[in-house]
Each structure stands twice: as structure tokens, then as C-alpha cells.
Design a protein that fits this description.
The protein is an alpha/beta fold. The longest helix is centred in the N-terminal third of the chain and has 16 residues.
């Protein structure tokens, strides 16, 4: 598709709305921004990205793709106290996994520190910035409130020559942290609190992961962000709605500095999911207190956690498209995200059988040592997935919940004296049970009808149901983890104590499961539908062919109502 074709494409695709596509199409038609679309994704490298960031990634990179433009990746690394190379590496991996490629090299705000420092001197020389010796607490006190104006610092009218000399001394490490800062000189009575002489540089006597010990002063996010956009020639600086009140400051700085271009900031509503937290501070607490097993725990809403859970890049992009882009905030039902992955895996995940809670079944009229290798389609609707081998033997495993000695007519599984079909195999009839000293059933004895492969019993009776199974001698043992939502309350961020909202059933570990032999040999991150059980993925790190470890991605259908009921019991 040519750039012109992209510009003529519909402003909105099937799914959620996207007002920014409409706006940009109108701008291109009128010649704004010289007809260019240059966006950027500017994460702070102070934690792992989460599902909300995925929406921003899809938006910024997606708009550039849609209009034949470019999207840059820039790390806004202005705070050496919280940043780490680990986060930089994970963010790049997340973007690639989602299927996007940034324009040019990775960029860093720290690469512009020299230019930003010169910009600060420009403001000082113009009388538009001053060195303030109020403490951080005093600055907050002088700032005022949303209903009361702030008051001027006693250092606000300091001579620019003195401010410049002091700022240079700050940069040379001659001041301790907290003893001075550089503030823009705007309007302490402004109704927008962000314009009340904001701090644009503060002292940090700490090494930076990119610049080492070169700097003792670091720019604020608000000061560095817009100027970095301008240096990079960004046309559309797309932020979430909480930055709307910061836009006047963004524009003021652009207007008063000799920047090479004039980007424009646009805001959209961030994506919030119920039963989910996306605060980096709170997510870090879960990691630090070992509530979860790291940033990529499959219960975490981080992109790396979602990936390890088994979600696909396509499902995340489709979810973001369904949610759409708007100016009005709100909360998205987590069930929509689960729907996106079910819809994907229903079409693209091969089938397999796995018994999570095994009960041995002995087919008494089956010859000892005899193995019959049956076959089943890899996918019921996709010939390209071929067939899989199902060795059937005298001893097999079924789920414990699939057998009862007695049951009412609504129970459609194996019952003493009743028939049931083994999935993709024969009809069996339960004859007897073996119990241990505690009275627990440890073995079920059955007979099979050799004339029922692919047909009903010869006597015309129909089995009550179909159950899955795995050979006890040819199947492979596996470890299977069943994950569910980490929180059992709809808005965990509102809980007085974060941990009070945790779902006690968010992880169940099944050891000694039995899985089809072919399924045990798949590569890590292979997704399968365990028939009658759910969608699962071979763990990204722990799974190895022959030593299978699987995580549940999602149930076959929404079972959250059952979880809530169990939690309230």
C-alpha cells in the first residue's frame, strides 16, 4: 500500500472508535504538520510495561503504520533513582513481541542532556527561570492549592547572572541534594497548578545508567519531554489524559525555547481493566514482597507476564482495537481481554488431551501389553494441523471428577453400570472399583466394546457422554499450573490494603498430570487446547520437550462467576 493509499484508508476500522485517526486524516488533508505523521513511544525505564502500555504501543505504532509515517522509541530516562537496564531490555523485547519495529535507533532523553542544559541556560538568561533555595517541602507549601493561588518564592526575582552562576555550580556538584532547584518563572497565581513556577531541574548526586557520573543535575520529565519531542521532529505527541493539564506547560516551553520543531500534544483515555492494577509502584510491591514470582508471573498484567500466560501478540492487538481510542475514561471488563485470546486460540491452537487429576482405569477385556495407536485431528477445522497419535492401552487415566459410583441423570460421565465414550476412541462401561484403606477409589475396572470405534454400541444403546483420557504407559507426566485473576475484587486499587483484594485461587499447581505423548514434545510457548479443560501454553522458560510444564491461558468459557461464588461461600 502506498502512502497515499494509507491516507485514503478509512479513519476507523472494525471495532472500537479511534478519534485520532479521524483527526490526523483531517490534518493531512489540510496540510498540517507538512502532511507528516511522526509519533513516539516514550516509556520511563522504571518498571515492566503492562496492558495499558500495550494500548499506547498499539496506538502510537499503529497510527504511524496507518498513515505511512514513523514511530520512534525513546526512553524518557530523567530519573536515575528508579531506572535500570533490565527495564530497558524488557521494554524493547515487549515491543518486538507485539509485532512493531521503531524508526531508527533506540533513543534516550539522556542523549539530549547537553542540549537540555543549554535550553535551561537560555531560560535563565531570558529571566524565565531562576535558582530557588526553598526546600522541596517549602516549594509544595508555596505552590498553593487547586482553590488558592501560590505565593512567590523569596528567590523568584534573583538576578539572572546569579542564577546562571548558581545553576552551573549545581551542575558541577557544588550543592547537596535538596538545597536548590531550577524553576521556570511563569505564574504563581495561575489556575493551572502546573504553571506555578514548576521545577525543571533538580540535584541528584547519582550515576545514570547511560551517562555515568557526568551529571549532578537532571531535568524534570515535564521539561525534558516536549523538548525531546521537538529535537526528534515528532508531529503528534500522544499522551494519556492525566497529561492534559500539563499541555499548557508543554506548549509554554516549546514557545520560549529555540527548538527545531513544534510538536503538538494530544491526549487519549488510558485503558483500565477491572480486577487489575497497573500502578508500577503497586506492581513492584507484589514483586518485592514475593506475592508473585517476578514481573513476568503469568498472573501479572505486565506484557511479559501476559506473554508467559500464553496470550498471543495478535490477541493483544485485537483487544486494543476492540477497546478503541477515546477521550472519555472508563474501565474495560477483563472478560473482553479473555474473549480476545479465546477467539484467537479457538482458531489457532491445536488440540490435545491432558488429565489434571488422574484416576486409573483398567480395561479388563483389553489384552495385556497390546497398544492400539489411534489418530485424531490436530484441529477439528484445520487440515493443515495434521493428525496426532493416541496410543490406547489396557491402563489409562481419566479425571477423578469424570467418575462416580452413583449419579443422577444429569451427570453425563462415567458411572458404575453405565457407558461413556473415550474421546476419539471406544465406548467403555464401568464394572467395578478398587478402594484403598481410607475408602477412596483408586482404580476403576471397565470393559470396552471393540465395535464402537467411531460408532455407537452394536446393541443400539448410546453412551451418556464423552470423556478425555491418556494412556497410563505411553502418556507423559507433566506439571500444569492453572492461573486465574490475581484479584477477586473488581477495583483492587480502591482497597485500603492492596493484599486484601488478592484472589486465593489465582494459582493451582497440578503435579503428576498425564498428557498425550505428542503434546509433551512441543516447543516452549506452543499453545494447545486441552480438550474439555481449557487453553494452555508450554511455559516459556521451564518447559522442555519430554519434561512438559504447561500454564493455563484461559478457561474454555468464562468461569469467573464460579470463582466469585466459591470465594463468597
Amino acid at each position: 500500500m502506498s502512502n497515499n493509499d494509507a491516507h485514503d484508508a478509512p479513519a476507523e476500522k472494525t471495532g472500537g472508535t479511534n478519534f485520532l485517526r479521524t483527526l490526523i486524516a483531517e490534518q493531512i488533508a489540510s496540510g498540517e504538520h507538512r502532511g507528516e505523521v511522526v509519533t513516539r513511544f516514550p516509556p520511563e525505564p522504571n518498571g515492566y510495561l503492562h496492558i495499558g502500555h500495550a494500548a499506547s504501543i498499539c496506538l502510537n505504532f499503529g497510527l504511524a503504520e496507518h498513515f505511512g509515517g514513523r514511530c520512534r522509541l525513546r526512553f524518557d530516562d530523567t530519573n536515575p533513582d528508579a531506572e535500570d537496564q533490565e527495564y530497558i531490555d524488557s521494554i524493547q523485547a515487549d515491543i518486538h513481541w507485539l509485532g512493531f519495529e521503531w524508526d531508527g535507533e533506540v533513543r534516550y532523553t539522556s542523549s539530549y542532556f547537553d542540549t537540555l542544559y543549554d535550553y535551561a541556560l537560555t531560560l535563565i538568561d531570558a529571566g524565565l527561570a531562576y535558582v530557588d533555595e526553598l526546600s522541596p517541602e517549602q516549594i509544595r507549601e508555596y505552590r498553593g492549592t487547586l482553590t488558592e493561588p501560590g505565593k512567590n518564592s523569596p528567590y523568584r526575582d534573583r538576578d539572572p547572572v546569579e542564577s546562571r552562576a548558581m545553576f552551573e555550580a549545581m551542575a558541577n556538584g557544588e550543592y547537596a541534594e535538596g538545597t536548590a532547584s531550577l524553576r521556570a518563572k511563569i505564574d504563581m497565581a495561575s489556575g493551572n497548578i502546573n504553571l506555578r513556577d514548576p521545577v525543571i531541574y533538580r540535584i541528584r548526586n547519582k550515576a545514570h545508567h547511560q551517562t555515568g557520573n557526568k551529571w549532578c543535575v537532571y531535568p524534570s520529565y515535564d521539561f525534558a519531554h516536549g523538548q525531546s519531542d521537538a529535537i526528534e521532529g515528532v508531529t503528534h505527541s500522544i499522551c494519556t489524559l492525566e497529561f492534559e493539564d500539563h499541555r499548557p506547560l508543554y506548549n509554554w516551553l516549546i514557545e520560549h525555547l529555540p527548538v527545531p520543531s513544534h510538536p503538538v500534544q494530544y491526549e487519549f483515555a488510558r485503558v483500565n481493566l477491572n480486577y487489575t492494577i497497573t500502578s508500577k509502584r503497586k506492581l513492584r510491591r507484589l514483586v518485592d514482597e514475593n506475592i508473585v514470582d517476578g514481573w513476568d508471573d503469568p498472573r501479572m498484567p505486565t506484557i511479559s507476564g501476559i506473554r508467559r500466560r500464553g496470550y498471543t501478540p495478535e490477541s493483544i492487538r485485537n483487544f486494543c482495537e476492540m477497546v478503541g481510542v477515546s477521550r472519555s475514561g472508563g474501565t474495560v471488563d477483563a472478560a473482553l481481554l479473555e474473549h480476545a485470546i479465546r477467539d484467537d486460540l479457538n482458531t489457532n491452537a491445536a488440540r490435545a488431551m491432558c488429565v489434571l487429576d488422574p484416576l486409573k482405569v483398567v480395561i479388563t477385556n483389553w489384552e495385556e501389553g497390546h497398544v492400539e495407536t489411534l489418530t485424531a485431528p490436530g484441529h477439528p477445522n484445520r487440515d493443515d494441523m495434521g493428525e496426532r497419535r493416541l496410543p490406547l492401552t489396557r491402563e489409562i487415566y481419566i479425571e477423578k471428577e469424570d467418575f462416580r459410583e452413583e449419579a443422577n441423570k444429569k451427570y453425563k460421565r462415567l458411572v458404575l453400570g453405565k457407558k461413556v465414550r473415550l474421546r476419539n476412541a471406544y465406548v467403555i462401561e464401568a464394572q467395578d472399583v478398587v478402594k484403598n484403606d481410607a475408602g477412596e477409589i483408586v482404580e476403576v475396572h471397565c470393559t470396552y466394546d471393540p465395535d464402537t470405534l467411531g460408532a455407537n454400541p452394536a446393541d443400539g444403546s448410546k453412551p451418556k457422554g464423552v470423556i478425555h483420557w491418556v494412556s497410563a504407559t505411553h502418556g507423559k507426566q507433566a506439571l500444569v499450573r492453572v492461573y486465574d485473576r490475581l484479584f477477586s475484587v473488581e477495583n483492587p486499587a480502591r482497597e485500603e490494603e492492596l493484599l486484601d483484594g488478592l484472589n486465593p485461587f489465582s494459582l493451582t499447581v497440578h503435579r503428576g498430570c498425564w498428557i498425550e505423548p505428542d503434546a509433551a514434545e512441543v516447543a516452549p510457548e506452543t499453545r494447545l487446547q486441552f480438550e474439555r479443560t481449557g487453553y494452555f501454553v508450554a511455559d516459556r522458560y521451564e518447559h522442555a520437550p519430554g519434561a512438559p510444564v504447561f500454564n493455563r491461558v484461559v478457561a474454555l468459557r468464562d468461569t469467573w462467576a464460579k470463582i466469585e461464588a466459591r470465594g463468597n461461600a
